Amino acid sequence: MAKTIIKISIVFFLLSLSSYSQTEQDTTLNVQSEEPGFVMEKSPWGAVLRSAVLPGFGQFYNESYWKIPVVWGFIGYFGYVWIDNNDSYKQYRDLYVESDFKNPDYKRLRDFYKDQRDEFAIYIVLTYFLQLVDAYVDAHLFDFNVTPDPVTRTPQIGVKFYLR
């Protein structure tokens, strides 16, 4: 019976050590829950949506104002060349049909302008897609900070992130 009492008292002693070993409240959990994580200033998908509606608007949202005329310039140039090639294609198509399908030069020029028109349509789509990607990436990197080190005056890269 004495051995049983000793065993029970040892078990209670060990349980009391584990339950009373830490008297101070753990504050790391409270600090993590109270401190907000990193919040991006710009929404990448918001920038993509803006650029999808109006090309260049995502760049405006990201405050990359110099990119707007570049986007519009490429789309405008490719659109102008597409329209010009389409008009030439229609002209030589009609001439080829009016010549009763006998003039091979009209056929060659018709096919050339059709290929050029299709190629510039691809350029327009690629430019549109690339400006969407640019808006997305630029919004992600909006908070990326590259400032010089005040002591050595050399550029240093600073990235902010918080583990949750």
> What is the number of strand segments?
2
**Considering DSSP H and I runs of 4 or more, what fraction of the residues is helical?**
55-70%
Strand content: under 5%
Q: What's the pLDDT, averaged over the residues?
A: 82
> Rg to the nearest angstrom?
34 Å
| Unreliable spans | 29-35
Descriptive account of the structure:
By secondary structure, the protein is mainly alpha-helical. The protein has one domain. Helix content is 67%, strand content 5%. A two-stranded antiparallel sheet has the order 1-2. Mean pLDDT is 82; it is low at 29-35.
Question: How are the SSEs placed, and which strands pair?
Answer:
Elements: H1 2-20, H2 28-34, H3 44-53, H4 57-61, H5 67-98, H6 104-140, E1 145-148, E2 155-158
Antiparallel strand pairs: 1-2
Helix pairs in contact: 3-6, 5-6
Task: Give a brief outline of the structure.
This protein has 164 residues and is mostly helical. It has helices spanning 2-20, 28-34, 44-53, 57-61, 67-98, 104-140, and strands spanning 145-148, 155-158. A hairpin with a 6-residue loop joins β1 and β2.
Q: Which labels suit this protein?
A:
single chain, 5% strand, two-stranded antiparallel ribbon, 6 helices, mainly alpha, 2 strands, 164 residues
